[in-house]
Amino acid sequence: MKGAFGCECISAKGKKSVQAGGQPMICTPLIGQTKEELFHEVEVLTEKNPDVIEWRADFFFITFMTRNK
Predict the structure, then answer these.
(1) What is the top-level taxon of the source organism (predicted)?
(2) In angstroms, how far is CA 43 from the centroid of its own chain?
């Protein structure tokens, strides 16, 4: 199934791990606390061709909320 930006979507319903072709996939987190840090991480990570990228929005929003009080 195709998702946003033409990426391949993989369902993990009822499974303990996401697999592609029977092999476990590696999930790489984005933990940047600013937009610039996130864009830099994406740039570096996409060159490494990760299986899955997880955006850790909690890191981003905690910083955003503390700066905008």
Answers:
(1) Bacteria
(2) 12
Q: How far is CA 46 from CA 4, 50, 51, 54, in A?
A: 16, 7, 10, 12
pTM above 0.70, yes or no: no
Per-residue pLDDT of 8-60, as tens digits, reads 555 555 555 556 676 777 788 998 888 899 899 999 998 988 888 888 888 77
Q: Please provide the DSSP assignment of the chain as one string.
A: -B-GGGPBP---TT-SS-EETTEEPPEEEE--SSHHHHHHHHHHHHHT--SEEEE-HHHHHHHHHHHT-
Residue (of 7, 9, 63) closest to 31 by Cα position: 63
